[in-house]
Amino acid sequence: GCGLVTAWNQRSGILFAGGNDKEVRVWDIASEMCIEEIAVASMGGITCISHDGVSGNIFAVGNMNGLVRVMDRRLDARTGVVANWREHSPGRVCSVFMRPGQAEVVSASDNGDVKYWDLRHRESVFTLTDTHPDQRLEYMAAHESAAVVMTASAATVRFWNQRGSNIGAVPASRAGVSGAASYMKTLAGYGAGRTQAVRVTAAALHGYLPVALMVSDDGRVSYIQPTRARPPTLSSSRASSIL
Questions:
Q1: For residue 145, how many C-alpha atoms fall within 13 Å in the half-sphere facing its CB?
Q2: Secondary structure (3-state) at 217
Q3: What local confidence, expressed as pLDDT, does residue 177 receive?
Q4: Cα(111)–Cα(94) distance, rounded to whole angstroms?
Q5: Which helix (H) or strand (E) holds 21?
Q6: What is the per-residue pLDDT across 97-141, written as a single tens digit (0 to 9) for each?
Q7: Which helix (H) or strand (E) holds 67?
Q8: Which long-range contacts (CB under 8 A, 24 or more apart) does 103-110 make?
Q9: Measured on CA atoms in the order 173, 174, 178, 179, is the torsion positive or negative?
């Protein structure tokens, strides 16, 4: 199944949530109440959600069958569909991202394809293919302020510019870092004496700075930036709060 997927809008204080039941629920965090239930018709289970980053009225979802759908929650579900794109089919859409205040949507499927969309067009405007050869793409994030996309498989986090060039790669292990500086902080109680292969379990981009965090299943948090300057030391408690 899809499990639970969410997207938080800090400005409006609402949380989008979806999953196997093909509905997006909108929660008002201040009142702790569900204020809307939006049926996303004709879709498989919802695998990812994003929003416009401003009002939260426009949101995008991806599903198990390769569909990316953009909707306006101010309208009726039957008329509120802004865009439908099916180029990822039959792959599973693992991530979707809307840049705040822009008409651009970026999505990724588990076969390694990343697609750029414009809300004014019915087809993708650019496709980045084979981002992780022989590996399944687990996650993708687009930077809010820079023309950079981050993709993650179980073994590697990679960075791409808008021309489709790979500008950096960071493996889950300490060795072989290229194109970026990675500084590790092992969280207390995890990873001691580990001998098996390390896997990436989560990754995130900073909203404004050219900085990323990568988490591996040995309890290590990697701080990634494009320079060799040493970042501030991350304590385990602070690392947890950032994530």
A1: 7
A2: coil
A3: 38
A4: 9
A5: none
A6: 998 888 899 999 999 999 999 999 999 999 999 899 888 898 898
A7: none
A8: 105/50, 105/60, 105/68, 105/70, 106/140, 106/142, 106/149, 107/60, 107/62, 107/68, 107/140, 108/137, 108/139, 108/140, 108/151, 109/66, 109/137, 110/136, 110/137, 110/138
A9: positive
Closest CA to 69 of 40, 98, 111: 40
Residues 47-57 pLDDT 10s: 999 999 888 89
Distance CA 39, CA 118 (A): 24
Residues of the chain with pLDDT under 70: 1, 41-43, 77, 173-198, 227-243
Task: Using the structure block, give the residue that is written with the tokens 């990323």.
Answer: 212
Under 8 Å CB-to-CB from 62, ≥6 apart: which residues?
46, 47, 48, 68, 69, 88, 93, 94, 95, 96, 107
Cis peptide before 232 (omega within 30 of 0): no
3-state secondary structure (DSSP) of residue 162: coil
- Give the CA distances from residue 40 to residues 19, 53, 68, 72, in Å, rounded to whole numbers and listed in that order: 11, 20, 11, 11
Q: How many residues does the chain have?
A: 243
What single DSSP character describes residue 178?
B
Q: What is the pTM of this model?
A: 0.79
**CA gap 226, 232 in Å, rounded:** 15
| DSSP at 12 | T
Phi, psi at residue 242, to the nearest 5°? Answer: -65, -40
Task: Determine contact, residues 200/212, Cβ cutoff 8 Å.
Answer: no
The residue to which tokens 């822009």 are assigned:
102
